[in-house]
Specification:
5 helices
Length: 139
């Protein structure tokens, strides 16, 4: 398998993990908006199960970033799917972060998070997520 094809395969796997995580935070949001029936333990277990896969996927992305940069422009053009997959991963990550922050705020309002779990002050900045995204993308 070529380097570009391997990068695309790893990106597809990463997008799949992100889609699972998005589904989880969306279900949590729905449960938090329901009058009753929210169980933090259920969502904690699902997150705990997803964490090793997300960590592995992220490690592969770091490795692939270096490999992608080593490819010639001609080799990169042979795999246009990579750019599309990168955008998909970024879009999913942004959605996950936004919904998770909303969920966190709902948990705080309901008194379901201890005071030590309060988000740091810098997370309350309106453009924090966009700035974080820009820094991690290398721009």
């Amino acid at each position: 398998m070529s380097a570009a094809a391997q990068i695309a395969a790893d990106l597809r796997a990463h997008v799949a993990v992100c889609e699972e995580l998005l589904g989880l935070v969306q279900r949590e949001s729905q449960a938090l908006n329901a009058p009753e029936g929210y169980s933090a333990a259920d969502f904690h277990q699902h997150r705990k199960a997803l964490l090793p896969r997300l960590e592995q996927s992220t490690a592969e992305l770091r490795k692939n970033r270096l490999n992608w940069q080593k490819l010639s422009p001609a080799e990169r053009k042979q795999c246009p799917e990579v750019s599309k997959l990168l955008r998909m991963g970024q879009d999913l990550t942004m959605k996950i972060l936004m919904i998770d922050r909303e969920n966190e705020q709902m948990l705080l309002r309901r008194g379901l998070l201890p005071a030590k779990a309060l988000p740091p002050a810098q997370r309350q900045r309106p453009h924090y997520v966009a700035d974080l995204y820009r820094r991690s993308s290398g721009h």
